[in-house]
Amino acid sequence: MTRILLVETASPKRVRRAAEEILRGGIYADPEVTIFSTGNPAALRCYGEISGARVTAPRGRGTLAALGALRAERFDVVRIFWTGEAEYRWLKLGALRLGRRATLVDNGDGGLFPLTVPALLRHALFRLRHPLPVDQGEFAPAREPRERILIVQSAEPAAVLRALARLSERPVFRDPRYTILCRNRPEVVRRFREHPMIAEVRTHDESRRALGHLRALRRLRFDGMVLFLTGDPSYWKIKYFAFLLGARHKLIFNENDDCFFFSWRDGLALLQRRLAEQRTEVGETRSSVPLRLLLQPVKAALVPFRFAWLLVVWLRLRRAALRASGSRPAA
Fold first, then answer.
1. Tens digit of pLDDT for each residue in 51-91?
2. Which of 17, 23, 166, 244 is the most exposed place for a label (fewest CB within 10 A)?
């Protein structure tokens, strides 16, 4: 008997097809198939139609913890699926705990390979050229026909409204549903909620709960994003934040209301032009431009430490003020 574990790190339909191929015979001798599912009801219904397979799912514990517990069963073969589907990335990493020697990777294009360094490098190069399998459309769940677009308010509301007017006159997205992420200010929120093109308004309080906002927005998997790079320094944090959201298409508006889809070449050209304008204003020499480019990411990385230092200074001043008020003689 060959005991085989299939880990749901791809579409349930793809996992089901692999299980049915194994159970038909000819691949492994006397196969006994176990499927580890994330517990999604639709996936469980899909696996329930397979005759002869055992399905297990997390019950009252975390998904990764339940997957790790299966290591004690010592399966002869563990098959995981690396098909480029981002929603399974953490489960793919967790499946590596089940043992390197028994694990086979199914790339979705008919290839199976063991967990060796040369095979992993070949797979990485293959995925760069082909992000998804050729038959992904047959197995992926149906997506909404409308494109979900996130507008990040990284300029004054007037600039955002001008951009919306331009997108209304000359659309660049297919039947878009716009969600805007804006500052939590009543006058700003009111202007956007009253706009007919905006379906949802999400607010933020500058740097507060930044990680929570990041996780929530990344889960929504927007098809595109609209960002404003107008040179306004008061929005520099949200500009850095926007590039972490994972939107595939990024439409950039500049200070002249011109727009272009972001690419590294156009982005670097815009940055170079910004630096040239600043150098002209302050009389900066050309030799200092590379230094400024290097310092930009360093400054961004130091923001949490600068905030912590300011907090420590404030606490020390607060403590000194409380001591001074407590030592004053009563009048």
1. 889 999 887 777 888 888 888 888 999 999 998 887 888 88
2. 244
